[in-house]
Amino acid sequence: MENQSIRLSEGWSQFYGPNLGYMLDKYEEYEKNPQSVEDELKEFFKYWGAYSEEANLKQSTVNEPRSLAQGDQDGYYKAMQAIKLADSIRRNGHLMADISPINLEEKPSILTYADFDLTEEDIKKIPPQLISPNSHQSFSNGLEALEHLKETYTKRLAFEFNQVHDMEERRWLFEKVESRDYLPEISDEKRLALFKRLNKVEGFEHFIHKTFKGQKRFSIEGLDTMVPMLDEIVRESVEDGTEKIMVGMAHRGRLNVLAHVLGKPYEMIFSEFHDAPNKDLVPSEGSVGINYGWTGDVKYHLGADRAIKERQTDATITLANNPSHLEFVNPVVEGFARAAQEDRSKPGYPKQTKHKALPILIHGDAAFPGQGIVAETLNLSQLYGYSTGGTIHIIANNMIGFTTVSGDSRSTKYASDPAKGYQIPIIHVNADDPEACIAAAHLAHLYQREFHKDIVIDLIGYRRYGHNEMDEPLATQPSLYKKIKEHPTVFERYAEELIDRGLIEKAEKINIRETFSSKLEAFFEKIKRNKRKFIDESMTPPAYVRSTLEGIETKVPIEQLRKLNEDLLIFPEKFNVFPKLEKILKRRVASLKDEGKIDWGLAETLAFGTILSEGIPIRLTGQDSERGTFSQRHLVLHDYNSNDIYSPLHTLPTAKASFAIHNSPLSEAACVGFEYGYNVQSPETLTIWEAQYGDFSNGAQVIFDQFLSSGRAKWGQKSGMVLLLPHGYEGQGPEHSSGRMERFLTLAAENNWHVANLTRASQYFHLLRRQSKLLKENEIRPLVLMAPKSLLRNENVASSPYDLSEGKFETILVNDQLGNEKTEVDRIVFCSGKVAVELEEQIKENVAELNWLQVIKVEEIYPFPSKKIKEVMDHYPNLKELIWLQEEPQNMGAWHYIFPYLQDLRSENMRVGFIGRKRRSSPAEGDPKVHKKEQNRIITEAITRKREGSPE
Questions:
Q1: Distance CA 412, CA 418 (A)
Q2: If we measure between CA atoms, which residue out of 780, 870, 874, 886 comes closest to residue 831?
Q3: Phi, psi of 252 (to 5 degrees)
Q4: Closest Cα to residue 333, out of 374, 366, 275, 289?
Q5: DSSP E strands: which ranges in 722-852?
């Protein structure tokens, strides 16, 4: 419960209606165990004690039960029982409500008067304002008020609000529902429009079913009302000033949403079924934007954009591309929305305007409780760095997941139950009642607009056919599907309702379907003769994707760097930096002098400062990123006396763009998905996600596999996101040694991203700046960086200021202490990252004895710099062996990726070998002494002439 919700000075008089019922329940919990309630409730109950008639009589006139005589204990008891009954209706009415079109079991009767020791006559004596304070004026007695509550909470709309702890929100929700203010006005004209909309939704599915027999479409049938619900939310949001509406959904009903909410042309959808050319079918005015990569994707994964022209200012609706990993698009859409809400044009944190963008997420009923990514995304909803001002969630509840019934797929009564843990209000609605569905959409919009918080609509329907229209559901759910087979469609039911109202004639129902079917047939006729004659099996990426990103200027004048460094060390006059930290930071003054050394953390800060000075916004998130996992960053400082915060990059005099840095929740999948979405929507922003340790990225593997690595090839969706994955073997055990480089290299192809493992701070500086300069270009692609841990403060990694001001990013670094006697060199050792720095340290001690050796540090592993390596190899005519050195076991790290490249580079008289740990199932040893021994063996073997690396 929010602290501001309870006013201690006002006592029990501030509570009435559902809030009074809630407090009475909480007091019962308190009596049993005072520790079971929140601290503010405990304080309130301790001060005021139990609810009493005397306290009740202090209420305002509106809420005072005047007809109860003071001292009438029986009357008081009956009144309290009536309050409890009313609260039970609010709390449990959904259990009796008619919210499912297909009922396989009887609804319980749980709200009988006798259960509360009441009769109708008792209830009639209760003042109606005590039972239903939000609409009591129209009732003459308590019984009428109670019947009103039953009507409100047990029909085709049902509500669960008790999990909402904030009193003001609860009061607003109950007032809206019980006063029925949330019900939109539905004119006869709107009913006819709704009827025509349902005709298109169903007619479209019927046409595809008949025309493209046996093809998957993941039909919306049984949840047809989802389309008019989306129409309503979109219309109301745009009228309220929303500029961007971001929709995420899986494949169930996706083609129908594309056609009717996104405006994707019918003939374009038919052409995808018919395998006909379709690019010319995109409307010339560009109202529908659909991107294709060079490999493409199936039709029910593709997204689209539509310009909304029903208002004067520009507005667009976007359906996000989504693979079959169902709910993993959720955080991506949230990232879209956050990016669309923020103004990044000025220094400091971006300015967020929450109503500018609205996320709508459509979930499956099996997936909502079944996939952890849902809970991770819900957890982001009220966090400062991730909030999007409230998401409208719609559960497309067809009561089944593939062939698995609800009883086998969740441990909760409703699919929506996980939302309760995040205090999200829930509306259950029967998908067979279009007008109730519109009302649910309207209430959801009102709540989201009022409180900028998430709300869930559990749209309960059914699935007309099998999972993909090729299954036979009678084989696995005979009872359910016998009922579904006999069940009329929502279009049929609503048509009958309008016929009964006298709004349409029976013939009109038949005519409207035939007219629409003829229209679809005409669209199909236009494309069905255009079968593809040529199949481009090569699927070659565009030339700019094949670019190797060479020749990009990233150096910064030394005087500019020095001035920047000085500005970053100016703190507000009354801001008290932690004394020990202030000393560490102030040492950076000397780092930019001629003989100074710039470590990794300072190189990063200088890179950020120069990027912001060039007007490029930055967003950096991750667990503990403000300080840095290894206490290396400190870009957010905390006042030693007041806990106020300050970031030097926010007040940098030369900054021309925003800098957002946020400590993330303990989540990987949702957080990486969010940053990916943010970057796609805001391609001009340098978006960085940092893992606390590299192996934490394991939790986001679906995002890497399905979005980051392949999104451009499948959907033409560009990303320049940066991943920082701390990596390196320091003897700390298997869990936090490896960033799992091998997984990213396995996914590397078609220049889909760059994978680097650096050995100098200056290299990091230039790589960040290179990435920032490419953000708006076609050549942009993600950057995967195996970030350092122990190397963060290693003197051999620190760089001269002139490496930043005069250097550039080098894909390889050749050891300039070795190879002077070129004809003597017969071995080249290739390596990267931490092991390369350790090798370099050993070489310094033994350089005089190593005239036969050369070492090439491969800084950018993918794309592999074969051309540059070949140029170096050509200087050594007597080479006999090429060795790849790594810390990781042979079945991990870069070896399997590197081996074919080294094979291509070698001549006939050369061998290719491996030095590293032997094949293991675990990434590293758990014993630090064993680690040290293995590490020494690896380094020694690399610089010992007699020993040979093992071949593949």
A1: 8
A2: 886
A3: -65, 115
A4: 374
A5: 722-724, 754-756, 783-785, 812-814, 827-831
Token pair 């100074």 in the structure block, residue: 596
Residue 648: count of CB within 10 angstroms of its CB: 22
pTM: 0.91
Q: What is the pLDDT of residues 814-869, one digit of tens each?
A: 999 999 999 999 999 999 999 999 999 999 988 889 999 999 999 999 999 999 99
Check if the beta carbon of residue 583 is closer than 8 Å to that of residue 646: no
Cα–Cα distance, 59 to 82 (Å, whole number)? 18
Cα torsion 699, 702, 705, 709 to 10°: value is -80
Identify the three-state secondary structure at position 357.
Answer: strand
DSSP symbol at 598: B
- HEC-encoded secondary structure of 249-290: ECCCCHHHHHHHCCCCCHHHHHHHHHCCCCHHHCCCCCCEEC
Checking if the pLDDT of 63 tops 50, the result is: no
Q: Tell me which amino acid residue 734 is.
A: P
Residue closest to 700 by CA, chosen among 711, 689, 710? 689
d(Cα 771, Cα 7) in Å, to the nearest integer? 53
828 - beta bridge partners?
Answer: 854, 882
* Integer Cα distance of 327 and 378 in angstroms: 12
Cα–Cα distance between 433 and 427 in angstroms, integer? 14
Name the one residue in this structure whose structure tokens are 């400190």. Answer: 634
Dihedral over Cα of 473, 477, 478, 479: its sign:
negative
String of DSSP letters for 152-173: HHSSSEEEE-TT---HHHHHHH
Contact 873, 879 (CB under 8 A): yes
853: how many CB neighbours lie within 10 A of its CB? 23
- Distance, in Å, from the CA atom of 461 to the CA atom of 253, rounded to the nearest integer, reads 13
Q: Are 678 and 687 in contact (CB under 8 A)?
A: yes
Are 335 and 326 spatial neighbours (Cβ–Cβ below 8 Å)? Answer: no
* Contact partners, residue 714, CB within 8 Å, separation at least 6: 293, 295, 296, 297, 301, 321, 323
Query: Does residue 353 sit in helix, strand or coil?
Result: coil
CA 396, 399, 404, 408 dihedral sign is positive
**Which runs of E-coded beta strand occur in 590-655?**
618-622, 637-638, 645-646
Q: Return the SS3 of 42.
A: helix
The two structure tokens encoding residue 462: 């059914």
**pLDDT one-digit tens code per residue, 159-203:** 999 999 998 999 999 999 999 999 999 999 999 999 999 999 999
Amino acid at 331: P
Q: For 733-755, how does the pLDDT look when each residue is reduced to its tens digit (9 = 90+)?
A: 998 999 999 999 999 999 999 99
**Cα 98 to Cα 156, 531, 828, distances in angstroms:** 5, 49, 76
H helix or E strand, kind and range, residue 769 = helix 761-774
Query: Does pLDDT of 272 surpass 50?
Result: yes
**Residue found by looking up tokens 């509406």 in the block:** 245
Cα 364 to Cα 303, 544, 634, 761, distances in angstroms: 18, 38, 42, 47
CB burial class (10 A; 0-12, 13-18, 19+) of residue 790? middle
Three-state DSSP class for residue 502: coil
**Beta-carbon count within 10 A of 515 CB:** 11
Q: Where are the beta strands (DSSP E) in 691-809?
A: 722-724, 754-756, 783-785
Extract the tokens encoding 538.
């090569």
Three-state DSSP class for 240?
coil
- Note the maximum CA span of the chain: 112
